[in-house]
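Before the break, one more example. Copy the sequence into your notebook; we will annotate it together after we see the structure.
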Amino acid sequence: MAHNIITQIGQLCNYLQDPIHVARFQQICGVSGTFSRNPAETKEVERARLHNNSISDLQGENEKCTVNGGEGEKTKSLRQRKVTSPGNSLKQEGVANASQNGSVVTPAGKTAGHIGSGCRLARSSDVGVRDLKENGSSGVNGSRVECTSATPDERLSEDPGPKTTVKPLRKNSLTGDVGQEFLIENKFLYYLFTLGTELGNELFYITFFPFIIWNVDAYVSRRLIAIWVWVMYLGQSTKDVIRSSRPASPPVVKVEMFYNSEYSMPSTHAMSGTAIPFSLLLLTYGRWEYPFMFGFTLAMCWCVLVCISRIYMGMHSILDVIAGFLYSLLILVVFRPALDLIDNFNLTYRYAPLIIISLHLGMGLFSFTLDTWSTSRGDTAQILGTGAGVALASHLNHYLGLMPDPPLDQLPLSPPALSAALLAVAMLRMCLGVLVLLTIRALMKAITIPLACRISGIPSGDVRKARQHMEVELPYRYIVYSMVGFSTLFLVPQLFTYLQLS
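Here is what the structure looks like once it is written out:
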């Protein structure tokens, strides 16, 4: 009985991890990619083209080109369509290379075979399991042209509507790969899920956490950051222990490339998108006056948007997202009761600064020994550095009597009435504060990377290669973002006090 249950769970996990489901969801949302033909298909097409070269002469350059292959029913007429992609064109004179893997397609004026097969851009869900196995690599390959045996009338009926060609979001931070262009039919969903995935990126963190600290509640913010640090650290470390690869492309379209070199299970975006909104709900309900259902609905919408966006982006399978969501909830259940103890320790214990620095640095060293360097290594050190800086600032604020927490008899707090003056001051704080943080980050980066390279004896000419060494990346990320976290909770609020913006 137990063996059958385990077997069924394993089958369910394999089913949810299948990249075909990601590709189908992308197709439903209006995303289609141009993938390169695999080498085996290329050889078949080329042999058929050479064999039928004398009988397949069609229209010239004024006609749109078609690529044909495979077997199917004969048709009396052919409709030609021109297919283009970045760095890739189909010409009449000969065979054009389609991508870096050496795949080729037939020239514009020729058909590869005496069968009346048409051609169109391959949609994600149309790519079979065979392609998944043969091209199962992370990242985006070149352009793929899918050949079908559909009749002209059938191809006309499935002709897609207007599409927009878009490049993947940001190049890969490890390899520099910019990815391959893809097509979108639904711009609303594209921008909506782009917003969702940005809720788990650095730009969001460096604006959201300071906003809460400077304009809402420092008590809530420092505890929220403590939860975020533990959730993200455990998520990144677990990801490098499991070592599950990203969904294969094809069939999946890589809408985002930045994190494509990292492992996939669990989704740390899903973990962050679960931990932050629901922690905010737990920390603010009862402390601030607002309807519970309003807070719960907002947290749920936030969580769902981030989780679904990772599937849309082609970065995670359904199983990755579900695992990230459940793992984050488990950490919250275990960590939430100890939050008061940890916060009080950071504020009041005499040797808290030394322990905080040692603990976070030790956690960073441990995570760097889990696997070869990847972007997740730097992100882990960055998260730990931010948490250490905020904890140190909290201790110093408490020691100096700065930014005191409101007494319990004043709870619950009432949100202030919105006014133009209140919004103007909040925006001024944000603009000035973020500018200070970005300046500090840039200065510290310019100092720490060359210094770490000099101390460790690593050449600093190529910064990307230099940062792939633990001796450079760990101190750089840890020191820079410790300073950013410390400045967020201590230096910038003191600047606001001096400028009478508190």
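The chain has a mean pLDDT of 75. The chain has 17 helices and seven strands. Try to locate both features in your own notes.
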